[in-house]
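Trying the structure run again after the queue cleared.
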Amino acid sequence: MPPMTSPLISVVMPVFNGASTVGRAIESVLSQSIKDFEFIIVDDASTDETPSILSHYSQIDPRIRIIRHDNNSGTVSIPLNTGCRIATGKYIARMDADDISLPNRFKEQVGYLERCPEVGVLGTSIGNIDEQDFLKGISIYPSLPDYVHWALFFGCPVAHPSVMFRRAAIAAVDFYDPDITAEDYDLWLRASSITKIANLSDVLLHYRAWNGSVSKVHEEEILASAIYLAHRHISRFLNKKVNYRQVELLWKINRTKTQLSIDDSDLVEQLIEDLYYNYVSHYYINKNVINIINHDIATILRKICIFKIKYSIYDSVALFLKATQFEPIHTMLLGYIKRLI
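Done. Tokens:
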């Protein structure tokens, strides 16, 4: 008998009571154009028809390996760690039990990772589907590693279920932390200290957004956890204890119609400038990425202008002029026109 060889890819998919969608998720993985993978499905003590569905698929495809927990973990990190720790592939592809991978997802991600050994975590852009698989829109994630690194200050610039990562890179930071609610953002922050993170701009996964999903049910808890992590990350980067309120406002100004007082406006302005000047002086960044970062800074400063105008037209105009130092008015107008076309 020839010696057993490890697969190129280990697909890791946790599931809990996913009977209504898990079959479609499994079919999408089995339909990948790359066939060299093992498929580890961790059943986190499902009580619906999920176990029988998994049993059916494991009998028809030997690449499928079912691991069943006796008790529900209460967090996705634990079943993810169960699967990742026993994975034998060079690459681990994440998959959720209510999503659909498009046929060339693994092929495109493996191709990129083989060409770019400096990248250890690779996501993709995603299509957003509803409970009936109807495509509601798409989410494009930043592709350039240096910009993804910058974007980690303000949010989670990677779609977790779309990710493929090098097993060695994630093992080096000890996989997921089960005590963290925003487990994916925490992992990317830790991984970013030893490897680069990127995204493919192509939509290669359909992400199911519905009211019963974990991300929707625990949305506020996940956001609070992520802001806590961002505060720690930013404080370490700036090598000083940053005001927590500054980070909270910086995150919320891009997500909600948060109303800022004059003092809050000053806090956000100070933090964004501190981050910018430290980042561009600390890293060698190409001109394209600098231009994208400059646009980010100008956009946030212009938002603050709107809040400041209620208190002082002079201060608002002065801040608008400062924003033009990062992005000239003609560049801003051209960007608006492109989005309208």
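Residues 44 and 69 are 5 Å apart (CA to CA). Worth checking whether this holds up in the mutant runs.
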